[in-house]
Write a structure and sequence with these properties.
Spore Coat Polysaccharide Biosynthesis Protein SpsA, Chain A; globular; two-stranded antiparallel ribbon; about 280 residues; alpha/beta; eleven-stranded mixed beta sheet; about 35% helix
Length: about 280
């Protein structure tokens, strides 16, 4: 059965972008002419996802509005003959079927995923972290779903990181059954560099079975006193890691967002020439 649902936890406060994120959800910070969140939803849709569950919190109404229809705005654009803009507004609203659920308290990524249980139901599903944007010829979600179709079980996206930074990520270890595929035998959330079982970290993309919800309900708080998705994943009987291909940007911090801006702006069909000229001027 094809995987068609994706869960996107977007309830975070975005403290690294304060004071801007007092008023603007970090997921709506722009990369050229689209918000970060649209990039990852477009990736999911390109991989066959049709239904998106946004796990939001108080103050995230703008995120919900962005993917909703805007009849008054559409009527104004149509009356003004601004049909190209009208098409863009309608395109965003029709990307996928979007529903929203609330995470009432920030209790970690595992808890955020658990909040989506009733919206997901008894189906395999994808989890995407909106901070992690990947420019890849084949969408990373599609890469994971291909592994899932071949191997079954859970699948996570992996990326090699410097050992001194393993304490920022969930780290996986196990035999490599192919150059880009690991049969995971161990997962550790944010291990100290000296204790990390490898340098392959989980990066913002998961394919999960619905049994993960019961595991999350019985997973005690872990690193940072939060319910960690990695700790629940470690209890699954079968999981694979896929070392994905593509350029990865962590837009959850200002430098990562700037890097993504430079990458996408210089490749933009309309603004690329101007962006490259600016880079040359200030480089």
């Amino acid at each position: 059965m094809p995987v068609t649902r994706a869960v996107l936890p977007v309830a975070g406060l975005g403290t690294r972008f304060l004071p801007l994120t007092k008023a603007v959800p970090k997921e709506l910070l722009p990369i050229v002419d689209r918000p970060c969140l649209e990039y990852v939803i477009a990736e999911a849709v390109a991989a066959g996802i049709t239904d998106v569950v946004l796990v939001t919190s108080r103050g995230k109404g703008a995120v919900e509005d962005y993917f909703d229809r805007a009849p008054a705005l559409e009527a104004t654009l149509e009356a003004a003959g601004k049909l190209a803009l009208l098409g863009e507004v309608r395109r965003v609203a029709s990307l996928a079927r979007v529903v929203c659920v609330r995470q009432d308290h920030m209790r970690g990524l595992g808890h955020a995923v658990l909040c989506a249980e009733h919206a997901v139901g008894d189906e395999d599903f994808v989890v995407i972290l909106a901070d992690d944007i990947v420019d890849a010829e084949e969408p990373v979600v599609g890469q994971l779903l291909r592994v899932h179709a071949e191997e079954g079980g859970a699948v996570v996206a992996l990326k090699n990181v410097p050992r001194e930074r393993t304490n920022r990520y969930g780290i996986c270890a196990g035999p490599m059954v192919r150059p880009d595929r690991m049969r995971i035998e161990r997962m550790v959330e944010k291990p100290a560099p000296a204790d990390a079982p490898s340098t392959l970290s989980i990066v913002g993309r998961y394919v999960l079975p619905p049994t993960i919800f019961e595991l999350l309900r019985t997973t005690p708080p872990g690193a940072g006193g939060e319910i960690q998705l990695t700790d629940a994943l470690a209890r699954l009987p079968l999981a694979h890691g896929h070392v994905f291909s593509g350029a990865h940007f962590d837009t959850g911090n200002p430098v990562g967002l700037l890097e993504a801006q430079l990458h996408y702006s210089t490749r933009h069909p309309e603004y690329g020439a101007a962006a490259r000229a600016l880079c040359a001027r200030y480089g």
